[in-house]
Structures
1.
Amino acid sequence: MSVPESFDNALPATRVSDLARVRGPDYLEGLNPEQRAAVEATEGPVLVLAGAGTGKTRVLTTRLAHILATGRAKPWELLVVTFTNKAAREMRERITHIIGPAAEGLRWLGTFHSVAAQILRRNAELVGLKSNFTILDTDDQERLIKQVLEAENVDAKRWTPKAMAGLIDHWKNRGWTPDRLPPSEGTEFAGGKGQTLYRLYQERLRVLNACDFGDLLLHNLTIFMNNPDVLADFHERFKYVLVDEYQDTNVAQYLWLRLLAQKRQNVCCVGDDDQSIYGWRGAEVDNILRFERDFPGATVIRLERNYRSTSHILAAASGLIKANKGRLGKTLWTESNDGEKVIVRGVWDGEAESRLIAEEIERAKKGGTEKEPRKFRDMAILVRASFQMRAFEERFVMLQIPYTVVGGPRFFERAEIRDVHAYLRLIQSPDDDLAFERIVNVPKRGIGDTTVQKLLHIARVGGVPVMHAARQAVQTDELAARTRTALSNFLRDLDRWRAQAQTLHHSRLTEQVLEASGYTDALRLDKTPTAQTRLENLKELVQSMG
Ligand SMILES: Nc1ncnc2c1ncn2[C@@H]1O[C@H](COP(=O)(O)OP(=O)(O)OP(=O)(O)O)[C@@H](O)[C@H]1O
Ligand SMILES: [Mg+2]
């Protein structure tokens, strides 16, 4: 985060409250009475339960501005959590729009994971990690699980690392450490070895000074529960807690919120039980029901006026969700006009669907006797899963309909970005075995799988990091001459980059690594359609490092 530690001093205490006087509460204008009530009920627990497009996020943002503008808290005393980085960014922008640069001090505004990661960095030693711990991505996670499975003689073909990763994630989302795992849970995997494997995996993570995504919250929970003084510090710090998309919280996130908010009880959650999309990730609509139990006397506010859609669209949506079980029930209304009716069409398959929709698009583009022509950029297609896009893309290429794909794998999940990350990790911490394994032969430098397995074996037997094993191996004739040379060159490169890291800016270092390792050259020669995009992504990454 770009806010300097000294920001506390940089912003005079009076300035935020001055804003209220200067600007007046004009940010409250235009809110409907229920929205306004939700903004102004700053003290005590508040649950805003409302349908899509009723202004929940707007309420949360305005409430945040209101708390700051009336001097109830400083920006760094607010804990604000959203579900995606994009949502966090948008919220920050909207607040900046209302209160100006003071919004920069919102140090604790982010996703559950990013806020939990910040908390963990400051308290890592309490769970046996160092503050510079690595956060593993799913590839690394599966690689590590594979090692654990092999060490325990579990058949990784039958009990795949992916399945184990899913199971561990599920347990972590429910707030279960290996010790807290209910007896019935560990029994199914690998003939009853689930709990043992989970424990070994956690031990390996600790040795590697690493954690996976699920650990971020889980370790926070452990820290809070075992260290009341640390929790008390956070109670002192966070005067107000605000949560968007509350319906998507899983059990671990809920416990985390409850621990952080239980003292002051100034917690405001906004959500919609009808929009819970993460059910399969352990999200619990129950959390909404539990809120009223855990925070007795909570003010519950319902927003029913929709500002986003026409009444036909609302009616169609209500008709569908009416059939859902376990909902709390609400009726949306709007003042906007009826609009066009929603049309439902059944088609045989994806091909037929793309044909139909492409025709529809061309018709809309042309316009008709009663209809204005539409622009391509005003049309959108939503799909449930990305594989469904293929048929559309093929069709559009054929008909020369221009399109852009929004979504797809997120930037930091792309292979090339993860590769760079692994290089930098290995430069920073030579003991990072997972990073080593990932890039030792990326780009291809003649160090094949057999060699890697040999090195892993030497490392395991000697109880040393793989890098260490590699240094040993190049001194002996255990490897073929050609492999030995390739490996020595690789080790020499790493040493050089490590020395350069002392003086070079990390964007320059990254450029060096990409060029000298042959990574960019390999992509330049690559004739597959994605190679160009991947080069651009790398450029983007280097630029973003400033
Ligand atoms: N009182 C209001 N007057 C005019 N427009 C409003 C009002 N409240 C909200 N809106 C507009 O309605 C739209 C939806 O608002 P918002 O995104 O806050 O809703 P939401 O309930 O968070 O939606 P979702 O369920 O998708 O999260 C936005 O464009 C917002 O500016
Ligand atoms: Mg919203």
2.
Amino acid sequence: MMRRPGLALKLSVLLMLGVVGAMVVDFSLTSGTDMDRARVLVFVSIALAMALLAAVVLDTLIIRPLVRLSAQARRMEDRGYAEPFVPTGLDEPRELGEALEHLRQRVLAEREELQRLNAELERRVEERSLALAAAQRALVEGERLVAVGRLGAGVAHEVNNPAGVILGRAGLLLDDAATPEAAEDLRVIMRQAERIREITGALLRLGRPSRGERGAVDLAAVARSAMELARHEAVARGVTLELSCQASEVDADAAALEQVAYNLIRNAVQASQEGGVVRLHVAGSTLSVSDTGSGIAPEAIPHLFEPFFTTKKLGEGTGLGLAVAHGIVRDHGGTLTAENLPERGARFVVRLG
Ligand SMILES: Nc1ncnc2c1ncn2[C@@H]1O[C@H](COP(=O)(O)OP(=O)(O)O)[C@@H](O)[C@H]1O
Ligand SMILES: [Mg+2]
């Protein structure tokens, strides 16, 4: 079929992004009156203007917001999720923007949660590894201490009797000492022999820490009586002893536990300055002794419970107090730990199993 000659207007609405629409006006300009033609032109002009307006509105309120959202979504791959989506435009792009922003926030929150869980997991693994390493060390240390303790006890057994004989004979000679000088020499011999017996006594306890009877023991009463034993030395050094306790019952060897408490209190008193305070605290099956003294020297910490480890002057310390205490507590299935306090001084804690 032949097309009628006429005006064919094709309005291509060209936007930045290409053709988004086209309008075809097909009307014969040869037929009709001038008036008709004028009307057609007016109509076409109005249609053209409206099409342009629609295109601009479409572009501003729908297409550009969508383009912005999609460009930002693509940028996220490289730049992460920090940049928020800003919803603009008509309802649809605005809703899409809001949905994307909601999604972004969820991703961020979930990522944070994942990081937190990861850190928590790492912390737990670290904690478990440390606990395992500590348990292994304690096992090796425990076995070593037992071996050293047996050896020490064997030697002590042999030395104890001769020391007793020296002490007894020196005592007899002292009664008939010819001169004051001789008497003083004999006292020195006796003091040294006493010291040998003290050391051998500690070594024997180290080798066979707990031979006594187990039974229901009031830990607070044990702490109180150990405190009384140590009071003399504390008073002489100008150190105050304090006890805070709740009545608590444990299944233990009372005499052995008293030895533990006594050794800890003595150390605390010896580490204190004049005017210092040594605090005993009993709660449940835990006994702690803290002081306001010098604190434990960092290099001493790994060796505290080793027999013969001492930082005290020759003659002042045997280095057996903590080894004995450790052995007794271990025999009770408990733990003995040491720590420096943040302010000053040290704390030793006995936890019975
Ligand atoms: N309360 C304390 N404050 C500081 N250091 C301490 C304390 N108790 C123990 N120590 C340290 O542990 C070492 C070993 O103690 P111990 O086995 O009782 O032997 P000794 O008292 O004969 O030295 C001490 O020489 C000291 O260095
Ligand atoms: Mg001691």
